[in-house]
């Protein structure tokens, strides 16, 4: 997590309604488990990815985050991607194969 | 598609591709053919690789034992950079060479993969009014380099002049970068640059010293300006961030983050591709290492290469008929087991969602595609499923009537291990496509006809249906994308229907002209799918009966190349649309697509492209992994 403190940390919030500048995003893994994040629309989604991977206890680069099938880059913001409240993000484990 | 039957407006587009191909191909191909290919049988893998490197780089032919000068000195000449960038560009170098041999006579239509392509290329060059393209003899590295840089770095030609990263590369070619801006990019711009325009600083205020190493850790207190290029050491990604963001607090936070990341060399971002686009793939240093011989490809590399194919290696007129799925698509559609009935409804819901959000809302109409490539990652193994001739459905294909049709819709499964297709693969793909067809029909129906019809559709379809329709409505009721989608099948290429397809002539337009009649016939019927299919688009999609074919393909001879093989299958199939989908014919087409040793060359090509793109983004000091050095840890601690 970077050192700036002005932005609110993404928190897991169940059932909280989002304000004007904040939205709730659901991160769903391949097994269907969901974690809900509340995040400002202008905050880079890296923050959400960091938080998710920390919760999962894995390295940040283990997951690819998809929104509507498109990869989310670290400096994308919910606003940039046109996310709406309660949209869901897919967290997919990285894939590697050879044999 | 025959070269002379392409749409009249594509000549410019073709030319831009031909420019790459002609320059890279003519020089490299001949050298490869003369050197690497004839020694191929006797070389071991690493030797072959070295031979390819040696032959590709004509400058280092004499001192070939030293290999390719991949880390040039700081003051490297442009032409040398051009050479290195060019190395990534020869397309299908060995494969084309081999398949062009007379001894490898394939059935017409697939042997023509290369021959036809050459014909297309020749046609392109002839039709092109610009004489510069038709100058293979006068090919100059620098010119080719500039052309490629325009293609490579960013994908948005208009931005290149103002994009700081590329300014230094294009300094000697300012006229060209505007005058011959490329059609594919123009198309891409209109299609993909939907994000808000980002204010860019003027070109002259950003200068990236090409010789600066980018790996160095950054001081936390460095100023936020870019005025002193030599005093600060920035990775190009940082600069991109500067360009992307409005001045403010975000800028600072990103810089901090980048600094943190740059310490971790393996995860260091090299570049994104396609730049500035949503869904861009970040290629890291670790991904580059996977392209060494024996590396297992990961989803980053696969997806990067698919996007690269889509943009630069396959001409747009052909790409219109193809669609590359994300590597996660298969994982996604198989994430719901389909064992019980409750699972089935869950899957239905998921497929609804995917169909809408992944495809329809993004304006991707799968039923206008001739080939749908679905990369499959299953138990550490890459393979690919290709759904063929879906466009035939939209064009009125019916299994009962057109059993003789050679362009029969089917699923091909190409696996370099020739193992059984993963369990549930075909079932998942089929039921996804069925769901997709239903959602697509509902979407087109709801937007193309009107509210009354939509309501009737809901009541006819039942509860499951209504969810799809409602969401479709909320998604597209007020946007243009749906209208565009509804129009899309009509504007699909008429020439491709002429070949062997026995078409009924029922066009989507007809469905919209007389919207009531199909609904009346089916509104009370219990067969929901039938209702869906007919209601929207007046074509019948019989997804459950899509046959699964497993044509013979070249098989991997080792335990690490399946990703490479998959990419090679994809590129070859993308180039050759077989004229018949009989298994025997497919076997004849696909079993000799390439030789096993071509995989090494292909691996090298991908690596070169990544290095070339990194170089175009100003990253010069990528570590070179010595092919014969077993201990890679030493090599990467540069």
Automatic annotation (TrEMBL), chain A:
InterPro entries xrefs: Rad60/SUMO-like_dom, Ubiquitin-like_dom, Ubiquitin-like_domsf
Biased composition (Basic and acidic residues): 1-11
Name this polypeptide is given: Ubiquitin-like protein Smt3
Region (Disordered): 1-26
Pfam families: Rad60-SLD (PF11976)
Residue ranges occupied by any Ubiquitin-like domain in the UniProt entry: 23-98
PANTHER family: SMALL UBIQUITIN-RELATED MODIFIER
From TrEMBL, chain B:
Compositionally biased intervals (Basic and acidic residues): 493-505, 527-536
Signal sequence, start to end: none
Gene Ontology terms: biological process: proteolysis
GO terms assigned for molecular function: cysteine-type peptidase activity
Ranges for domain Ubiquitin-like protease family profile: 281-573
Keywords of this entry: Hydrolase, Protease
Hydrolase keyword on record: yes
Disordered: annotated segments: 1-24, 175-200, 216-268, 462-537
Family: Belongs to the peptidase C48 family.
Protein name stated in the entry: Ubiquitin-like protease family profile domain-containing protein
Organism of provenance: Cyanidioschyzon merolae (strain NIES-3377 / 10D)
């Amino acid at each position: 997590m970077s050192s700036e403190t002005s932005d609110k940390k993404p928190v897991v919030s169940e059932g909280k309604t989002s304000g004007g500048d904040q939205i709730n995003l659901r991160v769903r893994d391949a097994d269907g488990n969901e974690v809900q994040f509340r995040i400002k629309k202008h905050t880079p989604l890296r923050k959400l990815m960091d938080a998710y991977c920390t919760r999962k206890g894995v390295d940040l680069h283990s997951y690819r985050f998809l929104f509507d099938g498109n990869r989310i880059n670290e400096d994308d913001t919910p606003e940039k991607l046109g996310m709406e409240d309660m949209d869901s993000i897919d967290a997919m484990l990285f894939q590697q194969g050879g044999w | 598609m025959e070269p002379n039957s392409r749409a009249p407006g594509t000549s410019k587009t073709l030319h831009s591709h031909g420019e790459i191909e002609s320059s890279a191909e003519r020089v490299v191909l001949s050298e490869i053919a003369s050197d690497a290919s004839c020694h191929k049988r006797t070389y071991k893998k690493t030797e072959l690789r070295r031979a390819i490197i040696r032959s590709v780089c004509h400058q280092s032919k004499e001192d070939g034992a030293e290999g390719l000068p991949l880390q040039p000195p700081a003051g490297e000449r442009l032409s040398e950079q051009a050479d290195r960038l060019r190395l990534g560009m020869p397309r299908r170098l060995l494969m084309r060479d081999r398949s062009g041999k007379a001894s490898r006579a394939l059935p017409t239509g697939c042997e023509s993969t290369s021959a036809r392509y050459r014909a297309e290329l020749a046609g392109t060059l002839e039709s092109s009014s610009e004489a510069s393209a038709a100058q293979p003899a006068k090919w100059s590295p620098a010119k080719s380099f500039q052309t490629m840089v325009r293609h490579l770095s960013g994908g948005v030609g208009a931005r290149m002049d103002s994009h700081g990263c590329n300014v230094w590369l294009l300094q000697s070619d300012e006229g060209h970068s505007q005058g011959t801006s490329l059609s594919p990019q123009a198309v891409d711009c209109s299609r993909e640059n939907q994000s808000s325009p980002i204010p860019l600083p003027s070109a002259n205020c950003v200068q990236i010293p090409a010789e600066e190493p980018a790996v160095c850790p950054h001081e936390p207190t460095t100023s936020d300006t870019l005025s002193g290029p030599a005093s600060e050491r920035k990775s190009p990604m940082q600069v991109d961030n500067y360009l992307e963001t409005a001045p403010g607090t975000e800028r600072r936070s990103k810089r901090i983050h980048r600094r943190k990341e740059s310490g971790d060399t393996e995860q260091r971002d090299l570049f994104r591709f396609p730049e500035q686009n949503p869904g861009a793939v970040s290629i890291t240093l670790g991904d580059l290492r996977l392209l060494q011989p024996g590396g297992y490809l990961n989803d980053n590399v696969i997806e990067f290469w698919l996007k690269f194919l889509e943009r630069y290696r396959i001409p747009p007129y052909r790409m219109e008929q193809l669609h590359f799925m994300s590597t996660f698509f298969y994982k996604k559609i198989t994430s719901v087991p389909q064992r019980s009935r409750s699972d089935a409804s869950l899957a239905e819901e998921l497929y609804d969602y995917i169909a809408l959000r992944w495809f329809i809302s993004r304006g991707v109409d799968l039923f206008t595609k001739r080939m749908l490539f679905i990369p499959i990652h299953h138990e550490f193994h890459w393979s690919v499923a290709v759904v063929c001739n879906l466009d035939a459905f939209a064009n009125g294909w019916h299994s009962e009537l057109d059993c003789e049709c050679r362009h029969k819709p089917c699923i091909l499964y190409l696996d370099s291990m020739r193992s059984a297709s993963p369990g549930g693969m075909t079932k998942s793909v089929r039921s996804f496509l069925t769901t997709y067809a239903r959602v697509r029909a509902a979407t087109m129906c709801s937007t193309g006809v009107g509210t009354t019809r939509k309501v009737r559709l809901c009541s006819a379809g039942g509860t499951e249906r209504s969810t799809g329709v409602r969401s479709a409505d909320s998604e597209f009721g007020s946007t243009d994308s749906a209208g565009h989608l509804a129009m899309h099948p009509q504007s699909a290429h008429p020439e491709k229907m002429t070949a062997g397809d026995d078409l009924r002539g029922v066009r989507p337009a007809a469905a919209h002209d007389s919207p009531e009649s199909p609904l009346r016939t089916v509104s009370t019927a219990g067969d929901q799918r039938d209702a869906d299919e007919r209601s929207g688009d007046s074509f019948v999609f019989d997804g459950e009966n899509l046959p699964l074919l497993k044509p013979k393909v070249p098989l991997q001879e080792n335990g690490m190349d399946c990703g490479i093989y998959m990419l090679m299958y994809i590129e070859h199939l993308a180039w050759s649309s077989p004229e018949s989908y009989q298994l025997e014919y497919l076997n004849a087409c696909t079993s000799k697509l390439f030789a096993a040793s071509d995989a090494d060359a292909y691996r090298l090509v991908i690596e070169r492209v990544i290095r070339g793109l990194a170089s175009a983004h100003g990253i010069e000091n990528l570590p070179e992994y010595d092919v014969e050095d077993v201990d890679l840890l030493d090599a990467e601690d540069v």
